[in-house]
C-alpha cells in the first residue's frame, strides 16, 4: 500500500507530534509514504475569497500526486474535506475540470480525475481494518476512556465522501478508538465544531465553541480528547490555556492524536510518538496506563 | 430603533450576482424552513450569524448590508446545515459564494486578506524558517520549504494577485 503524504500547512509547522506518530503507524502497518515537496496549501482558506482559485490550488496538489500514480493520504481533516470535495467535483464535472486545467497548464500540469484522497484514519479504518488493528494490539488501553472528535470535514460534505460514514450517526471513529482497547465515550457536544475557521474573525465566538466542547468532555471524565485534525488541536489544545484564562475556568483536558494512542497500544514508546510535545500533559492518563503494566 | 428595510435601498440584482458564483445557484430553492439556523453552532453562541436570515437578505437584495457586514464571514464550515437542508441550498458553499461577491465588491475581511497574503508569499499559511526545520530535524522529519511560485501563477491567472499586491511579492 502506497500513498503520497499530504501534510498541508498546519501539521508540519505546528503539530510535529501528529506527523511523527502518524508516520510511525504507517510504517508499522506497511503503508509506504511518498513525500512530494512541491505540494502547497490545499485551498481551504481561499474558498471564502475566490472558490475557483481555491479549486485550482486543490487541483494542483491532486495533479502532482496523479503524475506519480499515487493516491493521497491526508492528516488534516480540513485539507481532507477540501481535497475530497475538489476531487469529487473535478471527477464529475468535465467542463469545470477543463477550466481548471487551463490554469494548471501554466505549470505544465493537468488533472485527469484518476486518484483518491483519504484521511489517515479512514485508511486505517477501511484499508487496514479494525480486525487487523485489534490483532496487533500489544498493550490494550482497557483502563482508559476517550472522547473522540474527528473534525467536521472527516465525513462532511457526505456527498463527496460517499460511500463512507453517516455524519448524523457516525461510528467509524468510535470503532477506531475502541480498537485500542479503550472505551469511546459519548458526550453532549460530540458533534460540535471546533470553531477554528472563524478564530481570525471573531476569537470570542471560536473560544466559546471550543470551551463548550472541552467542558462537555470534562463532564464525562474522559481521560483525553482524541483528535485527527491539527486545526482542531489549535483550538482544543494550543488555545486551551487562553480559553481557561478568558472564561476563568479550569479545563485541563489532555488532548492527544489518535496516532499517539494507537502507537501506545501497539507497544511503541512515548518518545517516538512525540508525546513530550503535547502541550497539555497527559500525566494522569499515562500513569493509569503504566500502573496497569506494573500490576500485570 | 428598528432597522426597517426600505424598498429604495434594495438591489434586485444582488441575488443574480450571488447565483453567478460557483455554488450560488440553489439560493432560490430556499423555502426559509430554518433548519440551517437551528443546526448552526455559531448561531448558538451569537445570533449575529443566522444563515436563514442571510439567505433571505440576499433574496431581498439587501446588498450593502450583507456585503459590509462582519456576519457574512462567520461560517465555521461545519457543514451541519449543508447536510440537513431539505432543499439542497448547499449553504456552507453558498456562504462562500456570498463572500466571493463581497471580495469582488471590495469588502474582504482583513483576516482573509492576511491568510491570502501568507499563502501567496509562502505557498502555505506559514512562513517556513530555520527554526521550524531545526525542530523538524530533531523530530527526524524531512525538511520543508516555502513554495510560493506555483501559487503566484494560480493567483495571477485568476486575478487574485491584485488583492495581495501589497505583500512582499
Helix-strand makeup class of chain A: alpha/beta
Q: In the residues of chain A, how many domains can be counted?
A: 2
Total DSSP E strands of chain B: 0
Enumerate the strands of the largest sheet of chain A in spatial order, edge to edge or round the barrel.
Answer: 2-1-3-4
CATH architecture of the largest domain in chain A: 3-Layer(aba) Sandwich
Defining key terms:
heterodimer; A: 296 residues; alpha/beta; Glutathione S-transferase Yfyf (Class Pi), Chain A, domain 2; Rossmann fold; 4-stranded parallel β-sheet; 13 helices; 8 strands; 10% strand; globular; B: 169 residues; mainly alpha; Fumarate Reductase Iron-sulfur Protein, Chain B, domain 2; 2 domains; 10 helices; elongated
Describe the structure.
- The complex is a heterodimer of chains A (296) and B (169).
- Chain A is 49% helix and 10% strand.
- With 296 residues, chain A is an alpha/beta fold.
- Chain A folds into two domains: 118 residues, Up-down Bundle (Glutathione S-transferase Yfyf (Class Pi), Chain A, domain 2), CATH 1.20.1050.140; 166 residues, 3-Layer(aba) Sandwich (Rossmann fold).
- By secondary structure, chain B is mainly alpha-helical.
- Chain B has two domains: 98 residues, Fumarate Reductase Iron-sulfur Protein, Chain B, domain 2 (Orthogonal Bundle), CATH 1.10.1060; 55 residues, no CATH class.
- Chain B has ten helices and no strands.
- The termini of chain B are far apart.
- The interface between A and B is large, with 61 and 59 residues.
Amino acid at each position: 500500500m502506497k500513498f503520497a503524504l499530504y501534510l498541508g500547512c498546519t501539521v508540519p509547522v505546528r503539530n510535529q507530534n501528529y506527523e511523527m506518530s502518524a508516520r510511525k503507524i504507517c510504517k508499522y502497518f506497511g503503508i509506504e509514504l511518498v513525500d512530494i515537496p512541491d505540494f502547497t496549501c490545499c485551498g481551504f482558506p481561499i474558498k471564502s475569497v475566490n472558490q475557483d482559485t481555491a479549486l485550482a490550488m486543490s487541483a494542483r496538489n491532486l495533479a502532482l500526486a496523479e503524475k506519480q500514480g499515487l493516491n493521497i493520504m491526508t492528516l488534516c481533516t480540513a485539507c481532507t474535506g477540501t481535497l475530497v470535495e475538489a476531487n469529487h467535483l473535478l471527477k464529475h464535472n468535465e467542463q469545470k475540470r477543463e477550466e481548471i486545467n487551463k490554469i494548471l497548464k501554466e505549470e505544465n500540469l493537468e488533472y485527469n480525475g484518476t486518484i483518491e484522497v483519504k484521511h489517515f484514519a479512514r485508511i486505517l479504518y477501511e484499508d487496514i481494518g479494525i480486525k487487523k488493528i485489534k490483532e496487533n494490539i500489544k498493550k490494550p488501553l482497557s483502563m482508559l476512556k476517550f472522547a473522540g472528535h474527528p473534525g467536521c470535514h472527516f465525513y462532511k460534505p457526505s456527498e463527496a465522501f460517499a460511500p463512507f460514514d453517516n455524519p448524523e450517526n457516525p461510528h467509524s471513529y468510535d470503532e477506531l478508538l475502541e480498537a485500542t482497547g479503550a472505551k469511546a465515550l459519548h458526550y453532549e457536544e460530540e458533534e460540535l465544531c471546533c470553531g477554528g475557521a472563524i478564530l481570525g474573525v471573531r476569537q470570542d465566538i471560536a473560544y466559546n465553541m471550543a470551551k463548550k466542547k472541552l467542558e462537555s468532555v470534562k463532564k464525562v471524565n474522559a481521560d483525553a480528547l482524541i483528535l485527527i485534525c491539527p486545526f482542531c488541536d489549535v483550538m482544543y489544545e494550543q488555545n486551551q490555556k487562553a480559553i481557561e484564562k478568558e472564561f476563568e475556568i479550569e479545563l485541563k483536558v489532555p488532548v492527544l492524536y489518535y496516532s499517539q494512542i494507537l502507537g501506545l497500544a501497539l507497544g511503541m514508546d512515548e518518545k517516538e510518538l512525540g508525546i513530550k510535545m503535547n502541550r497539555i500533559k497527559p500525566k494522569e492518563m499515562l500513569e493509569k496506563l503504566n500502573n496497569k503494566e506494573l500490576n500485570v | 430603533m428598528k432597522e426597517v428595510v426600505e424598498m429604495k435601498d434594495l438591489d434586485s440584482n444582488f441575488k443574480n450576482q450571488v447565483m453567478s458564483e460557483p455554488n450560488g445557484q440553489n439560493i432560490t430553492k430556499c423555502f426559509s424552513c430554518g433548519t440551517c439556523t437551528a443546526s448552526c453552532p455559531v448561531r448558538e453562541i451569537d445570533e449575529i450569524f443566522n444563515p436563514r436570515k442571510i439567505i433571505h437578505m440576499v433574496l431581498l437584495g439587501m446588498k450593502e448590508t450583507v456585503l459590509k457586514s462582519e456576519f457574512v464571514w462567520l461560517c465555521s464550515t461545519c457543514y451541519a446545515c449543508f447536510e440537513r437542508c431539505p432543499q439542497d441550498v448547499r449553504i456552507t458553499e453558498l456562504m462562500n459564494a456570498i463572500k466571493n461577491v463581497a471580495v469582488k465588491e471590495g469588502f474582504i475581511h482583513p483576516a482573509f486578506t492576511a491568510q491570502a497574503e501568507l499563502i501567496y508569499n509562502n505557498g502555505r499559511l506559514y512562513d517556513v524558517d530555520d527554526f521550524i526545520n531545526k525542530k523538524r530535524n530533531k523530530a527526524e522529519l524531512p525538511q520543508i520549504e516555502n513554495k510560493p511560485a506555483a501559487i503566484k501563477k494560480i493567483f495571477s491567472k485568476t486575478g487574485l494577485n491584485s488583492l495581495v499586491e501589497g505583500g512582499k511579492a
